[in-house]
Specification:
2 domains; single chain; 5-stranded antiparallel sheet; Jelly Rolls
Length: about 200
């Protein structure tokens, strides 16, 4: 490889022992393909035996809880431990909808919901609707009868992958299509959910 050829955007090991740079412990360094930036990646660790106490996020960014058999990653943006695996919850409606709850599968009724079996966090909200009817429809995320969050589509779609909507154990998750404006047609909503560690 020539001296000025691009370096692959990848992690390379510095040494077997994490080295301290500006107060943090780092084991890997990454150079981007333009060769104008260097990134340090924190040590990945924190596997516990008991699973009762998570590690200090400053010392380890990944933790396997042996109590619930879930691998968690510290999410600094949301300031909590969230599972590395994610689950997609689908809501839809066939035809025109306004002032009604979204359907789950083939069932549409205000008493139908997803039962959330452990503390969780909605980290992503995605919506797309047919290019007819109302293009800026507002939808509410509801637990039982409590509105937790709402979002409004633009030009028949919406996306927020930086969401933080916490759900407690036993939450009854629903989505309601509000009545303002014209009806939306054939909307599909996906809520991306990760499990949330609660001591």
């Amino acid at each position: 490889m020539g001296l000025f050829e691009p370096i692959h955007d990848d992690f390379i090991s510095l040494d077997d022992t994490p080295t301290t740079y500006s107060g943090g412990n780092y084991k890997y360094v990454r150079v981007d393909e333009n060769q104008d930036k260097v990134y340090f990646n924190t040590v990945i660790g924190g596997v516990t035996v008991s699973g009762t106490t998570p590690p200090d996020p400053n010392e380890a960014s990944v933790w396997y809880n042996t109590n619930d058999l879930i691998l968690y990653r510290w999410d600094p943006a949301r300031d909590e431990w969230l599972s590395t695996d994610l689950h997609n919850y689908l809501f839809s409606y066939q035809g025109a909808v306004s002032g009604l709850y979204m359907s789950i599968g083939n069932v549409g009724h205000e008493d139908v919901y997803y039962y959330i079996p452990r503390p969780a966090c909605i980290t992503g909200q995605i919506m797309a609707a047919e290019n007819k009817g109302e293009d800026t429809k507002t939808y509410q995320i509801i637990d039982g009868a409590t509105v937790l969050d709402s979002f409004t589509g633009t030009n028949y779609k919406y996306q927020n992958m930086a969401a933080k909507v916490n759900l407690d154990f036993g939450a009854e998750l629903k989505v309601f299509c509000t009545s303002a404006g014209q009806a939306a047609r054939n909307p599909v909503i996906v809520l991306e959910i990760r499990w949330r560690y609660v001591p």
